[in-house]
Design brief:
- The complex is a heterodimer of chains A (about 140) and B (about 110).
- Chain A has one domain (about 5-135): Histidine kinase-like ATPase, C-terminal domain (Heat Shock Protein 90).
- Helices cover about 30% and strands about 30% of the residues of chain A.
- Chain A has helices at about 15-30, 35-55, 110-115, and strands at about 5-10, 65-70, 75-80, 120-125, 130-135.
- A 5-stranded antiparallel beta sheet of chain A has the order 1-2-3-5-4, covered by helices on one side.
- In chain A, helix 1 packs antiparallel against helix 2 (about 35-55).
- Chain A is globular.
- The N and C termini of chain A lie close together (about 10 Å).
- Chain B has one domain (about 1-110): 2-Layer Sandwich (Transcription Regulator spoIIAA), CATH 3.30.750.24.
- In chain B, strands 1, 2, 3, 4, 5 and 6 form a 6-stranded mixed beta sheet that branches.
- Chain B starts with a strand and ends with a helix.
- Classes of the chains: A alpha+beta (about 140), B alpha/beta (about 110).
- The interface of A and B includes residues 16, 20, 48, 49 and 99 of A.
Chain lengths: ~140, ~110
């Protein structure tokens, strides 16, 4: 049976430190390998940051929900918000081979997400941005 | 996020504790800029107590690296956990910043 843990956050970057402890607790409870504590926390940091930055540009209050799921099919995390429609997967990848002088700032968050996870999907359903990140690892 | 700062033989050794995430990257940047503003151009950042560094933290390191390049300063990073080193490799930051295994090695690299 799937185990789902939900985290509800305000659209404020000050809430991001809340994520780590919840991720570690979930990973320990589900017996997931230690590297996922790091990978899931980092990915959620990036996903939530993008949701706040691009989805809530009007400064109004909003909510972001994180679902962490462990099932027979593997582990996944879902980030759901009702901000402006925004697909972070549409952002261009950074040029990781640039010299330090030419290296541009930006685009790294989503790129790290795509490289650390096994699959990342975006959809816009019933007025909500839904970003699903999957790992082929079971607890 | 606490950032310990220690001067050793004209090299400033910084040890951040916890996560260098979107919320704390600003403090990390302030700590680094304060060192540079103080005229110190040889900097080591020890990652032994860092749980993870997000793209916001990597951005700070990139900007500091660029700044030091122009002012003929030097920065080296050390004691990274495997997953953190992996993040630096994925980002290509292992090619543009000096990464060492130990703080001593990093101190020698910037001296």
């Amino acid at each position: 049976m799937a185990k789902i843990t939900k985290i509800k956050l305000k659209n404020d970057i000050k809430e991001i430190p809340e994520i780590y402890d919840q991720v570690v607790k979930f990973c320990v409870e589900q017996n997931l390998p230690k590297y996922l504590w790091h990978d899931i926390s980092l990915i959620l940091d990036e996903a939530v940051t993008n949701a706040i930055k691009h989805g809530f540009t009007d400064g109004k209050d909003g909510r972001i929900q994180i679902d962490m799921i462990n099932s027979e099919e593997g582990t996944s995390v879902r980030v759901i918000d009702r901000g402006l429609k925004f697909n972070p997967l549409g952002l261009p990848d950074p040029d990781t081979k640039s010299s330090i002088e030419k290296r541009r700032v930006g685009g790294l968050g989503v790129y790290l997400m795509k490289k650390l996870a096994d699959r990342v999907n975006y959809s816009y359903k019933y007025g909500a941005n839904v970003l699903t990140i999957k790992f082929d690892v079971k607890g | 996020m606490e950032v310990e700062t220690k001067l050793m033989d004209s090299v400033t050794m910084l040890t951040p504790h916890g996560r260098i995430d979107t919320a704390s990257a600003g403090e990390f940047e302030k700590a680094l800029n304060a060192v540079i503003a103080g005229g110190n151009k040889k900097i080591v950042v020890i990652f032994a107590s860092v749980d993870y560094i997000s793209s916001a933290g990597l951005r700070v390191l990139l900007l500091v690296g660029k700044r030091l390049k122009v002012t003929k300063g030097c920065i080296a990073l050390s004691d990274m956990a495997d997953r953190i080193l992996e993040v630096f490799k994925i980002s290509g930051f292992d090619k543009i910043l000096t990464i060492c295994t130990s703080a001593d090695e990093a101190k020698n690299a910037v001296a």
